[in-house]
């Protein structure tokens, strides 16, 4: 059996290696950690979550929840790990990031068909191979990838939110409640009055930020927009954005607060909390000063300050097929956020698609086509369909083919989309196992 190579052990690379190995294909998985790391990475483990610990909604009536259900049906390693290490987060799927990464690392490192090699790849591998070097791909590998026909390289900035310790909060000023009134009281809420909100926003707008060296200031991806950039859009942009108090009642007043900052558990014990939606590029002393204005965070201790780092993605429609194979180099695949699929699970999903496709090819079996009315198929079409203004995209109903039927409401339509999609995915999974 020919050995496949997977370069990069992030979510996409780990998922690709797993899908290959579970089909009997031997894999060499390479990663440059721990000898070399990017500015966003701190752990030697695979599948390190560098921004939020949330994988978004787990509800079937949400496109993100549908993608998770499809990936579970295809025996995704990433979903196995997430379900095993999840922490309370209402209707969202959030994980203890250290246990999550350890589960994936241990699973792959002990698999008899997977060989782990630790070095930095700087040239294109010979097929069969999958490149999953991520949005922080090194300059040398970026240049090698950019040499492929039809490619051009794009860059933008990504930001991560700060993490504080639970014991450092002022419990007299915060309260527990579910996000949007769904599920258990899994979030710590910091309510603000109108005057507190205005003062906080003013401080955000005048705080010192880290300069974006070497890149245009405008290259900020909407899905990870720094909180100070959101604040600059208008007085109520935060109150209608990451600080919207929908479904919350302040037990001290019996009324909905004007705005609220929500904190979500980072680990299983709940000793670390993530400021939801508060990715930032404020300088670290400024983060302590400005975020200290949030009720309950006056004396907060920071386990990690918010950071900003560069992300790179390719012009995928000019280069890739819907299964993430490079058109000009059969047997070579590019997956993950480097292709412009945005978010943890869409990134892992691209690795799942490529791993299955390459595995079927090496085993001389019939190729798999994921229908475009499924979340998996819709992602593949998005990266491969002609698009002169191509930008990163997560999974959403706007890219999934909708049924022609009429529905009485959006939830009924979403249920029908999920029903049709999962029926097709389960049939594919069964055919692969057979």
What are the defining features of this structure?
2 domains; FAD/NAD(P)-binding domain; six-stranded antiparallel β-sheet; globular; 434 residues; alpha/beta
Description:
The longest helix is centred in the C-terminal third of the chain and has 24 residues, at 410-433. The protein is an alpha/beta fold and 434 residues long. The chain starts with a strand and ends with a helix. The protein is globular. Strand 4 (86-87) and strand 5 form a beta hairpin. The chain has eleven helices and 16 strands. Helix 1 (11-21) packs parallel to helix 9 (344-362), helix 2 runs parallel beside helix 9 (344-362) and helix 3 packs across helix 4.
Q: What's the gist of this structure?
A:
The chain has 434 residues and is α/β, with parallel strands linked by helices. The protein contains eleven helices and 16 strands.
The CATH C-level name of the largest domain is Alpha Beta
CATH topology of the largest domain: FAD/NAD(P)-binding domain
Under the CATH scheme, which architecture of the largest domain would be assigned?
Answer: 3-Layer(bba) Sandwich
**What is the total number of structural domains?**
2
**Roughly what percent helix?**
25-40%
Order of helices and strands: EHEEHHEEHEEHEEEEHHEEHEEEHHH
Low confidence ranges: none
Average predicted local confidence, pLDDT? 90
Task: Please give the order of strands in the largest beta sheet.
Answer: 10-11-12-13-9-14
**Strand element count:** 16
Annotate the secondary structure layout.
Layout: E1 4-7, H1 11-21, E2 27-31, E3 54-57, H2 63-73, H3 77-84, E4 86-87, E5 92-95, H4 97-109, E6 114-118, E7 129-131, H5 139-146, E8 153-160, E9 163-165, E10 175-177, E11 187-192, H6 194-206, H7 227-231, E12 259-265, E13 272-275, H8 284-291, E14 302-304, E15 307-314, E16 332-334, H9 344-362, H10 375-384, H11 410-433
Parallel strand pairs: 1-2, 1-7, 2-6, 7-16
Antiparallel strand pairs: 3-5, 4-5, 8-15, 9-13, 9-14, 10-11, 11-12, 12-13
């Amino acid at each position: 059996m020919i050995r496949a190579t997977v370069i990069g052990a992030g979510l996409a690379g780990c998922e690709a290696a797993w899908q290959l190995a579970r089909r009997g294909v031997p894999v060499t998985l390479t990663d440059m950690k721990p000898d070399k790391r990017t500015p966003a990475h701190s752990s030697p483990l695979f599948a390190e979550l560098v921004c939020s610990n949330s994988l978004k909604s787990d509800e079937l009536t949400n496109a993100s929840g549908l993608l998770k259900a499809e990936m579970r049906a295809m025996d995704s390693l990433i979903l196995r790990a997430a379900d095993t290490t999840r922490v309370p987060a209402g209707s969202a799927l959030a994980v203890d990031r250290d246990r999550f990464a350890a589960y994936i690392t241990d699973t792959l490192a002990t698999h008899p068909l997977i060989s782990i090699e630790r070095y930095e790849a700087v040239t294109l591998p010979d097929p069969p191979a999958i490149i999953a070097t991520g949005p922080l791909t090194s300059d040398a590998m970026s240049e090698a990838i950019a040499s492929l026909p039809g490619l051009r390289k794009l860059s933008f900035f990504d930001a991560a939110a700060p993490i504080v310790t639970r014991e450092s909060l002022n419990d007299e000023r915060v309260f527990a409640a579910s996000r949007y009134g769904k599920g258990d009281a899994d979030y710590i809420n910091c309510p603000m009055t109108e005057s507190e909100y205005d003062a906080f926003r003013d401080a955000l707008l005048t705080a010192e930020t880290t300069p974006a060296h070497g890149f245009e200031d405008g290259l900020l991806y909407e899905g990870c927009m720094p909180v100070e950039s959101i604040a600059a859009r208008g007085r109520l942009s935060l109150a209608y954005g990451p600080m919207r108090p929908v479904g919350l009642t302040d037990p001290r007043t019996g009324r909905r607060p004007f705005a609220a900052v929500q904190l979500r558990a980072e680990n299983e014990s709940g000793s670390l909390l993530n400021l939801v939606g508060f990715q930032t590029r404020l300088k670290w002393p400024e983060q302590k000063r400005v975020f200290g204005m949030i009720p309950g965070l006056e004396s907060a201790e920071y386990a990690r300050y918010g950071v900003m780092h560069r992300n790179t993605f390719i012009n995928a429609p000019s280069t890739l097929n819907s299964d993430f194979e490079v058109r000009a180099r059969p047997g070579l695949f590019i997956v993950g956020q480097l292709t412009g699929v945005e978010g943890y699970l869409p990134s892992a999903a691209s690795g799942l698609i490529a791993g299955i496709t390459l595995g079927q090819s090496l085993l001389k079996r019939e190729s798999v086509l994921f229908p475009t009315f499924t979340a998996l198929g819709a992602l593949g079409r998005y990266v491969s369909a002609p698009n002169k203004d191509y930008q990163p995209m997560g999974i959403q109903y706007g890219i999934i083919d909708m049924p022609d039927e009429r529905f009485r409401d959006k939830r009924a339509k979403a249920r029908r989309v999920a029903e049709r999609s999962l029926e097709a995915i389960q049939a594919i999974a069964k055919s692969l196992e057979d």
